[in-house]
Amino acid sequence: MSEPSVPLEAIRATAARIAGRVHRTPVFSSAAIGDRIGTRISLKCESFQKTGSFKARGALNNLILMPKAQRRRGVVTVSAGNHAQALAWAARESGAPCTVVMPEGASPIKAEASRGYGARVLLHGSVMEAFDKAYALERDEGLTFVHPFDDPRTVAGTGTVGLEILEQVPDVTIVVVPVGGGGLIAGIAAAIREITPAVRVYGVEPEGASAMRQSLDAGRVVHLDDLNTIADGLAPPMVGELNLAIVRNAVHDVVTVSDAEILEALELLMGRARLVVEPSGAAATAALLAGRIPLTSDDRVVAVVSGANIDMPELLEYARAWQT
Q1: Confidence at residue 10, expressed as pLDDT on a 0 to 100 scale
Q2: Which of 42, 230, 267, 308 is in the most buried spot, having the most CB atoms within 10 Å?
């Protein structure tokens, strides 16, 4: 029996469905980074997407496909921030009430942004406790739970990033993608494998939140009790079952980077590429700079810059501590 996946036709249908309502994000070349890694590189800037991250694609696809009666009752989700903002925006665009449950340690800036899009924001416990709270609200209030990463409609949304990469950089040979719950890389890899299987897709996780790498090694979804990284958007306690299956079949490898390497990449992206990037969005570039991805001078690399929702005070505090 074949592993579960998201078919190319579903991704293409999603691209048509959300066209004009989300951005076709730009691709920029970077000589400064290319010189450092010894080959040509382009940055796929989902940092310019609606709500500041790739999450808007899957969130909107979920709301469009949802029956009207469910939309009227409202949606609920759990998120450290980017999916919360994306679902709040998509719900507002679709006329649906939205509740987001965030762990108590979530970024205040991301929580406030979610409120700004019209969501009811609840801060509750740890990440796993926040999931439990969201499921309880789904049951008690009749809301529809929209999973932040483990859902074929979400993955079909992120697959549209893969379609755009192939159209914008037709000679691409390697795509490097940040990994949290695995929704982004699953969609990109599902699209690319069907269209140009010779292109290698690599995932990148923080060392302190390597749920995908550990799940691949174990052959099953591994739940992490201890998460420790500056890249809060890449730190769910587990990856999705669907996403793990796609990564197992369609991704060349998943590597890890340290927070120090993420900060170095963040500094380069901000200082030389002039991009506003959150730590999660810098992970793919970090892996390239650290030599985690095998390259030749003939490769044509695309690094996905997945988000721009940076909590500047927290980042500066972390950077000062790291420098000392």
Answers
A1: 98
A2: 230
